[in-house]
Amino acid sequence: MVRKDSPINSVEDMLKNAKSLTFGNGDPNSTSGYLVPGYYVFAKNHVDASTAFKRTLNSSHEVNALSVAKGQLDVATFNTESWDRLAVTQPDKVEQLKVIWKSPLIPADPIVWSKALSDENKAKIRDFFADYGDTAEEKTVLKNMQMGKFLKSSDDQLLPIRQLELFKQRTEVAASTTLDAQEKATRLKDIDASLKKLQERITELNQKTADSSAG
């Protein structure tokens, strides 16, 4: 995101002018504020966010947003949940911001079960969550948690997270000072192969979704 009056309107604009911009990155422990843009915006464009800009700072979602609104940062990472919350608590600040890029959807707190559960118990659990949110009372509960109805899913929902975890591993391997050149190259090659395989699966699923919508 940038200030609404900024001439930066896209990732391409940002990267082209990076050396003149102050960038607010997320906390390194944040998935949406650090890992996601780190992979989709920077790694995929072969850019090192720590050196590409005039200055790079790391902070929380809210601090980044307020700093951009105040003109202390030129561009920064944020996330949708924090944006919605800020729109309620400080709508005047949100009015001063402009989104220039959104990531692919990433899973928010998926519900998982043990594979040791019986099919009967799995069905009961799945049906409970799938049906929850049909009544007015249940809708109110979900609304108060800033959530909508639960959707049926599978392990494929975690594909973006697996990508991000591999990206994190790749970053650590690439920056390692203890691995020799051959071992580092081998590990990076293996990680890149895994990333390619995950991307092929995501592309396949996206194509199925597109075909289903077209049909």
From TrEMBL:
It is found in: Cell envelope. NCBIfam families: 3A0109s03R (TIGR01098). Belongs to the phosphate/phosphite/phosphonate binding protein family. GO terms for biological process: transmembrane transport. Keywords: Coiled coil, Signal, Transport. One of its GO terms (cellular component) is cell envelope. This is Phosphonate ABC transporter phosphate-binding periplasmic component. The keyword Coiled coil applies. Residues 181-208 form a coiled coil. It holds the Pfam family Phosphonate-bd. InterPro entries: PhnD (IPR005770).
